[in-house]
Design a protein that fits this description.
Length: 110
């Protein structure tokens, strides 16, 4: 199938109304019927303006986080618009991809 990989990235310390920005993205996605995602934490990133974000031995609050979705049929634009409308300060990458599901039907059941 053809679709898009949509990835959102922000430091764990970035909040939106008391909620982490990445948690807010996942909440918005679920509200739009998007339930499958992959969430990653990273060791280090450098953001806009050259500011470094990293996980320190004693402090993980600035640890870079990323959540990715594989989307089809207009879901990509819908999610991007919903995140923008929420006013989140988050970096986003959209990549056109081709993807496959092996060994299971479309629902993910074996």
């Amino acid at each position: 199938m053809k679709g898009y990989e949509l990835s959102f990235m922000a430091p764990r310390s970035r909040r939106h109304h008391g909620e982490s920005v990445i948690d807010a993205v996942v909440r918005i996605a679920k509200a739009h019927g998007i339930t499958r995602h992959t969430r990653r934490t990273n060791t280090e990133s450098v953001g806009l303006g050259g500011q470094s974000h990293s996980a320190h031995f004693f402090e993980l609050a600035d640890e870079p986080e990323e959540v990715s979705f594989i989307l089809v049929n207009g879901q990509t634009d819908e999610l991007m618009q919903a995140v923008h409308a929420e006013g989140l300060r988050v970096f986003c990458v959209r990549r056109e991809i081709e993807f496959f599901q092996f060994g299971a039907d479309a629902s993910g059941a074996p």
